[in-house]
Amino acid sequence: MLPVAGKDELPATERRPGKNPPDPQLPRLERVDGATADEPSPQRSIAGGDPSLTFRGRTSTLVDGKVEVETVRPIEEGVRPSLLIRTFVKPYLEKSRNLVRVLEGRSDRRSDHRRFLSFMFFRNSTKDLPMHQHPSRVALLLSAMMTLGWSDSTPSQNAGASKGSASEWTQWRGPDRTGVSLENRWSSEGKPESLWNRDVGLGYSAVAVRDGKLLTRGYQSDSEQDVTWCLDAETGETLWEHRSPARLWDNMHTGGTLTTPVIEGNVVYVLSRLGPMTTLELDTGKVLWTRNLKEDFGAELGPFGYCASPVVIEDRVILNVGKTIALGKATGETLWETEDYGVSYSTPTPFEWEGEDCLAVFNGAGLVVMGLEDGLPIAEHSWTSGYNVNAASPIVVDDQVFISTGYNEIGCVMLRLGEELEVVWENKEMNSKMNGCVLFEDHLFGFDKSILKCLDLEGNEMWRERGLGMGTVVVAGDRLLVLSETGELVIAEASSEAFEPKSRAQVLAGDGKCWTTPVLVGGVIYCRDSQGDLVARDHRTAEVP
C-alpha cells in the first residue's frame, strides 16, 4: 500500500485490506473569487495550485440518471488535463496503486480505467450532494477522460495502451488476463482458406501477439529442445527463435511445452516446465537474464513440471511453482517467496481489493489470497483433488472469487473475500480441468469436463452443449470463440439464453488434442493442437458485424 500522509505506515505483517489508516485531509475546489466550493460556479481553480489551471463548466443537468454538460473545456489552450487531475484528484486515490497508475500514465489495464471513471462518477467528495450539482466534478471527469485518451489531441501512454489492448493478446488469457477481448471488427464466418499454418513443435503453449509479432513455444523431439518462436503474425515466417535443452515429458498427455510467453514492452518472459525462467529481447531474441527456479528456490517440479504461465505486473514477475515467487522484472532479483503450497499449475490472477493490490493464487493446497507487495497471505481456502491438480485460473468478481477443479469431480465454489474466505455457494455444475471459465456479462462460460456450459453467478446452469469434447473458450466482443478438442472452431453469441452457433469450421486436422485456447488479434484467429500445428484463420472485415 502507498504510505498515507501524516500517518505511520503499518508494519508489513499487519497490513490487510480494510485495515488501513484513514485518508488524509483532501484538497477542496474553491472559486476564483474566494467563495466556497459548495456554491455552483462557472469558473474555479485549484486551491493552492497553478492559477492558470482554470476551467469552465457552463451547465450541468441530470437527464435519465446521466450527467449532461453543455460545455466543459480548459480556458487556456495547451494546458494538459493530466495536470489538473494530478493536482486535485490524485490525493483521493492514494490508497489505490491501480488508480494512481492511471493518472501517472503507467497502466495499460482497462480495469484500472474503469475503476477510475467509477470513482469519478460515484464517489462524492462534497458530502451528500449529488455529483450533477457540482460542475467542477463533471469538468474533472471529462478531463480524466481526455487524459485516458478519449478526446485529448496529444496521445498518452494510456491512450495507446487502451487502444492497442483491443488488438493485442500479450499473455495467458489476454490483455486483462480475463479471456475477454474487446475486439469486435471481425467476421464470424471468416475466409474458407487459412491465412497460413506451420509446425511449431509439440505442446500446448498459447500465443501472445503484439505489433505484428507472434510468440509461442514448442518441443522438437529430434533435437530434444524447447523452442520459443517469434513469428510474423501476418505470414507465419520466423523472425527469430530461442532454443533450450528439454525433454518430452509425455506423462498422461502428448508432452511438450505448457506455459505461454508474456510480452511486456520490448521483453518476452518465458518459463520452462523444467525450471529456467528466461527473458528475451522482443526485437532480437537476445537473452537478457535467466533464473533457474528449481535450483534457486527448491520448488518441486511435480508430475508435469511447471505449468503456470508468468504474470508480469508493475515491476515484478509473479510465478506459481508451488511456492509463489516474485522476481524483479528488470534483472530477475528475488523480491519475495512464499511457503511451498504443493505442486501448482494455475496462473495467478492479480486484482485490487479495498485499495490493496492482491493475487489470487490457486495452488496444490487451495486458494490463497496474498498481497502483491510482499506475498503475505491475507486469506486461504482449502481445496484439493485426488490428483492434486488445480489448474484453472481464479476469477475475481467484485468481492468474490470463483474457482473450479475438474479432477475427481470436485466442482466449483464462489468465495467472498474477507479476513476469511466465506463460501457463498458450492456445487458440481462446473468441473474445469486445464482451462477455466470466462466471465462475461455476469455469466461464466466454460467446459464442465467435455460439456460446454453457461452458469450464472449463483451457480445455476443456463444452458449446455455437448459434442465439443474437452475444448476451450474465449470471448471477443459479444461472441464466443470455441475450439473443440478435435479442432473445430465454433463462433457463437455470448448469450446466457442458448448456445446458437453463427459459424463452424474444421480448422485443424484433429491429429492432436486441441486444449490450447484460440486467440483473436486484428481479425485473425490463431489455433493450435498438441502436435504443434499452428494455424491462422482470416476473419478480418471492414464492417462491424
Low-confidence segments, ≥5 residues, pLDDT <50?
A: 1-63, 65-98, 106-111, 121-135, 145-164
Largest sheet: 5 strands, mixed
Please give the share of residues in helix: 10-25%
User: Based on CA inertia axes, which overall geometry fits?
Assistant: globular
Number of helices: 6
Structural class of the secondary structure composition? mainly beta
Task: Please state how the strands of the largest beta sheet are arranged side by side.
Answer: 7-33-34-35-36
Portion in beta strands: 35-45%
On the 0 to 100 scale, the average pLDDT is 78
**In total, how many beta strands?**
39
Fold and architecture overview:
This protein has 545 residues and is mainly beta. Strands 7-33-34-35-36 form a 5-stranded mixed sheet, with no helix packed on it. Strands 1-2-3-6 form a 4-stranded antiparallel sheet. Strands 8-39-38-37 form a 4-stranded antiparallel sheet, with no helix packed on it. The model is unreliable at 1-63, 65-98, 106-111, 121-135 and 145-164 (pLDDT under 50).
How do the strands and helices of this protein lay out in sequence?
Elements: E1 29-31, E2 43-46, E3 55-57, E4 60-63, E5 66-69, E6 72-74, H1 81-88, H2 97-103, H3 110-122, H4 135-147, H5 157-165, E7 180-181, E8 194-199, E9 208-210, E10 213-220, E11 225-232, E12 238-245, E13 262-264, E14 267-271, E15 276-281, E16 287-292, H6 293-297, E17 311-313, E18 316-321, E19 323-328, E20 334-337, E21 349-353, E22 356-363, E23 366-371, E24 377-382, E25 395-397, E26 400-405, E27 411-416, E28 422-427, E29 438-440, E30 443-448, E31 451-456, E32 461-465, E33 472-476, E34 479-483, E35 488-493, E36 501-506, E37 519-521, E38 524-528, E39 533-538
Parallel strand pairs: 7-33
Antiparallel strand pairs: 1-2, 2-3, 3-6, 4-5, 8-39, 9-10, 10-11, 11-12, 13-14, 14-15, 15-16, 17-18, 18-19, 19-20, 21-22, 22-23, 23-24, 25-26, 26-27, 27-28, 29-30, 30-31, 31-32, 33-34, 34-35, 35-36, 37-38, 38-39
Helix pairs in contact: 1-4, 2-3
